[in-house]
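Example for tutorial group B:
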């Protein structure tokens, strides 16, 4: 287990947060669970425009962190830095104590065997059936018989409720089904951390609820760490142990879900109020 930051170091890292006590309690919970992912003072900008500024957070083993905020605040950028697709301008990113910001492609390939991502579009291979998509990472391991692969594929498709489309091509699936299959394929790689990028975008509330249940069930069964980027507060409430709320590029809040819901910060209250607003039916 990596050395835990001191209280002074963490207070310094969270200097931009308006709720250091919640952030400290989140850190203590993560330490108890063994820290798996840690961002410290991470900043990144595109074409001179600051996207994230001095963002710090940590996630313990088996915990679920939901990254919340309005569109364009850098939620998905955090995931792409964790996968090594983007490099921060400053700060450190650690996976189980290993600093990854200086790693080349070969080093990041090793990290991606432990940290996998479920993209918004599913990123499935169009020319492969559902079964072949889920089997792909299992075959890449080169250690399993076809019989064992078929058994694992069946189990994973059962876990996400997609057994009935195992012989279908992705083009024939709904958005919700594609994301469920993408989840099964991500889990086939036996990751330690699963990242979800806006899993409820472009799906109706019923499908969003089902996807939330799938994410929770998969975590309960397999015990991995999860980071979920979402703008959907109802979805986050079903999943989150911890919340990171981004506002204008900064971590306005990092801490337990219950503290986030009780925060008096006007920007957080506005976000919660607007998310709770439901348009009247015609």
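The residue assignment follows.
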């Amino acid at each position: 287990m990596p050395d835990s930051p001191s209280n002074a170091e963490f207070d310094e890292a969270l200097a931009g947060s308006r709720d250091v006590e919640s952030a400290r309690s989140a850190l203590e919970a993560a330490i108890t669970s063994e820290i798996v992912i840690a961002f410290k003072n991470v900043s990144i900008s595109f074409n001179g425009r600051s996207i994230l500024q001095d963002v710090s957070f940590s996630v313990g083993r088996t915990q679920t962190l939901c990254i919340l905020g309005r569109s364009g605040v850098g939620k998905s950028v955090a995931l792409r830095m964790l996968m090594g697709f983007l490099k921060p301008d400053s700060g450190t990113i650690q996976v189980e104590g290993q600093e990854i910001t200086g790693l080349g492609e070969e080093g990041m390939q090793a990290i991606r065997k432990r940290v996998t991502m479920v993209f918004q579009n599913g990123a499935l291979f169009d020319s492969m059936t559902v079964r072949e998509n889920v089997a792909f990472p299992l075959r890449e391991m080169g250690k399993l018989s076809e019989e064992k692969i078929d058994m694992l594929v069946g189990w994973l498709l059962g876990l996400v409720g997609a057994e009935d489309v195992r012989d279908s091509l992705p083009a024939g699936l709904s958005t919700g089904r594609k994301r469920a299959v993408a989840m099964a394929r991500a889990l086939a790689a036996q990751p330690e951390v699963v990242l979800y990028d806006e899993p409820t975008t472009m799906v109706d509330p019923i499908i969003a609820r089902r996807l939330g249940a799938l994410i929770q069930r998969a975590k309960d069964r397999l015990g991995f760490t999860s980071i979920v980027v979402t703008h959907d507060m109802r979805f986050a409430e079903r999943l989150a142990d911890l919340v990171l709320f981004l506002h204008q590029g900064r971590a306005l809040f990092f801490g337990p879900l219950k503290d986030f819901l009780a925060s008096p910060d006007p920007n957080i209250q506005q976000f919660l109020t607007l998310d709770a607003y439901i348009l009247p039916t015609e």
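Residues 135 and 149 are 6 Å apart (CA to CA). Compare this with the pattern of hydrophobic and polar residues in the output above.
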